[in-house]
Amino acid sequence: MKTEARAVLEQWDRDHVWHPFTPMQSYAAEPPLIIARGHGCFLVDIDGREYLDGVSSLWCNVHGHCQPELDEAIRRQLEQVAHCTLLGQANVPSILLARKLVELAPPGLTRVFYSDDGATAVEVALKMAFQYWRQCAHPRPEKTRYLALHGAYHGDTLGDVSVGDIGRFHELFAPLLFSTVRAPNHHCYRCPVGLERSSCRIDCADVLANLVREHADSLAAVVIEPLLQGAAGMIPAPAGYLKRLREVTRETGVLLIADEVAVGFGRTGSMFACSQEEVTPDFLCLAKGLTGGYLPLAATLTTDEIYGAFLGRPEEGKTFFHGHTYTGNPLGAAVALANLELLENSVLAGLPEKIERLRGHLERMKELPWVGDVRQQGMMAGVELVQDQASKRGFPSAWRVGQCVCREARDHGVLLRPLGDVIVLMPPLAIDLSLLDRLCDVLYNVLQHLAPEPDRPSKT
Asked: Which of 222, 307, 346, 361 meets the CB 3.0–4.6 Å disulfide criterion with 111?
């Protein structure tokens, strides 16, 4: 792009665009990266430089950019209708997608409520659970609370923030939030109950189960990210953890909300994470990869039992009075159907080889001096950087080491985004092995040269 045109875009970006989760003062201090187009696993900036999309454009892109089948699905739907309300009427793609999701989901999830993004998918489940206990066959209006894990992130609406637990995101809003029962998370590297993974019996699951039993009379639901906590730092759950939670919630009559916004649609190696432990939650929250990363669309799946509590004559007031203008958008539903077809027919079968290749690269990174831990669940991975491996002491936050690493990787043609000093690797599932090698090699080389002096990281 010509220098003058680029300068205008950069200035207008600084003057008008408020970027999410971005320290704007620091952002404005250097030229912004402005993306003009994409192809395959690459994004291309306005000057024509290509970058390997190492985080799937915030964990949602599945098949790469400008994927022909998905592009065509949107074109075909555009010839029919782009949008119509789902309030009191239906449209063809949303019906077909609901049927497909029910076929793919864990058995028993038969009802689909559409919304716009992951935050709203979880917010819907929170409100449905609350209302259910007031309208079910044997009402329990005292069940008004939720249990969630330390480090939880479920979105940015006030309900989601209430069940969330990431200080730098959530503390400011504390006066606006409802209280939540908090359980220790399954962070094996920094074990909340002080044990070693090699010898523990998933004691954190026992603590969780005891809290569910203790508070069962007041709990509407437990909210969890199955198999892996994402924004907490890519923290995998031990095998059997989710199944234990499902057992105790059934035992105590507490609903289970599974937030699969990040982990669904192949990210953990299967279509849905819950399926790996044969768990059917009461609510399954989906977004991100639902449309292959093309359009905003979310879904909250639930059971006939939950749905039945909302049935009645209009004057009884049992209706779920919640909705979004673009609920069940036909374009989003059409591209979601094409996305699911590709996942089923080609992508899922190729994941085991890619997961193993990623695991091999992570094992190599373990040997680097500033790597404290590497964590992986399927095609989701995190590399935690520490100042001292023996004590697990992290770097001072002011050094912004994770951000420095990602900035250096960008100079080598790879886009990454950190969670503090945890470097996230989550490429499009359709990435081929050679590009996966390239992604991991760039990160390895950047980390290898991170700290030429033993007491301070380099200014990369």
From this structure: 307
Residue 443 lies inside a defined structural domain of this protein:
yes
Residue with tokens 């819950």: 274
Are 62 and 168 in a shared domain?
Answer: no
Q: Is this structure's pTM higher than 0.90?
A: yes
Instruction: Identify whether residues 288 and 417 lie together within a single domain.
Output: no
Residues 293/57, Cβ–Cβ less than 8 Å = yes
Domain count, the chain: 2
**Which tokens is 1 given?**
């792009």
CA distance 90 to 85: 8
Q: For residue 288, what is the domain's CATH number?
A: 3.40.640.10
Of 297, 299, 331, nearest in space to 93 by CA: 331
| Boundaries of domain holding 253 | 84-328
